[in-house]
Amino acid sequence: xxxxxxxxxxxxxxxxxxxVEQVAFGMKPxxxxxxxxxxxxxxxxxxxxxxACGIPKPLWDAASGLITNEDCRMLAIGNPDDPATEFAENCxxxxxxxxxxxxxxxxxxxxxxxxxxxLRHELVSPMWVEERRKKWGVKNPLYISKVLGQFPDNTxxxxxxxxxxxxxxxxxxxxxxxxxxxxxxxxxxxxxxNVIAKEHGGHIRIVHSDHNNNTMDTLANLLRCIRQYRASVxxxxxxxxxxxxxxxxxxxxRDTKGxxxxxxxxxAKVEGxxxxxxxxxxxxxxxxxxxxxxxxxxxxxxxxxxxxADGEDDDLVSELLDLRWKTTAHSRIIMESKEEMIARGSxxxxxxxxxxxxxxxxxxxxxxxxWGRPLNxxxxxxxxxxxxxx
Length: 390
Fold this sequence. Notes:
This protein is of the alpha+beta class. The chain has helices at 57-64, 86-90, 108-111, 117-120, 126-136, 141-146, 162-170, 215-229, 242-254, 261-267, 288-301, 314-322, 338-343, 350-359; strands spanning 5-6, 10-14, 20-25, 46-49, 73-76, 172-174, 181-186, 194-200, 203-210, 233-237, 270-273, 325-327, 333-335, 364-365, 368-369, 378-381.
C-alpha cells in the first residue's frame, strides 16, 4: 500500500508541495563504492543490506555515516554462512546491533503458527531438518548455519574454512583448452556410497553416486564416466572393498589385442590409489591421504576451486567442513581417520574423498610426481565478495 512509483532501482513519490522526489534507491554491491553513500542526509534514513554476508566492511563503514542521528536505522538481512565476515562480527553479543536469529525451529511448520496452506509447503519441513540431523550431525557447521540459523565457528583443526568454501561456491572458473579432466572414485562399503567426482580446471562436480555393493558395477560406472567426460586419469580408492575394482581394471587394461581393445584403452586410465601409503613429502605428511588433502586445501586457499553454488551440493560442503587434521609426535600432518570421525558422530566423507582423489598426482616428470593441475584456468568471475552466484 505504499504510494509513488517504483522503478527498477528507484522509488519516487510526489511530495505535498506537488514535486516528485526520489525517496529510495537500490544498488548491487559490485556497482558500489563507499563514496556512493555520501551526500545523503535526512532525518529519517533507513539503510537495508540484503545478503549481508556478501557486503564488505568498507560499505558497512560508509553506511554508518548515513545513520548519524537518532531517527535513522539500519537493517541487515542474511544467512549465517561465513563467520569471517563483517556481518558475523555485527551479529556477535556486545555489538551495536540488535540481532534476531531465526532457526528452522522458529518457523511455522515447527511452531504451529497459522499460515496459508500453500505457503506451508514452501517453508522448511521437520522431515528435512531430521534428514539433515542424521546426515550431517548437529555439530556440523552446515547444520549450525542452515538449520539453527547461527554462525558456525572456524575450528582451529578444521581443514578448509567456511569462508574458502563460500568463495569457491561463488567462483566461476573456465578451464583452459588443455586442462585435463580427472576423476576420483571412492568405493563405498558397509552402507557408504560409491562416489565419482570430476575435476576439470578446478571445476569440481560429483557426477555419480550410488549404494551398489557390487564393485564390478562400480568399475563399470567409472569406465563409463571416463568415456563420457574424456578423462585423462581416474583414481580409485584401492584400499579395502575398492581393491577388487582396481585389480579388475588392470586385467581389462592388459587385453589390448582382443575384442575388448577399446575397453582396455579406457581401463588403462584407472589408477589404484592406496592413501595409507607413504607421502611424497614424508617429512611433512604422515601418509598420502594427508598430503592429498593438504594439497586440496591449498587449491582452495589459492582460489583455484569452483564448487557448485550454495544449495546445489550441501552434502559435499558438509563433508569438506567436517574434515579435521592434527600433527603426529614427529610433527607431521595427519588427517582424522574415518573411525575417529564416526566416533564423534560424523559420517564417512565419501564425496570429499572422491574430490581429494581427483586432485592427487598421477604421473612422474623427471623422476618426480607432478602434483595436481597446472594453474592454467581462466577466471571468468573473480569477485567473490558479493552475494551468491545467481
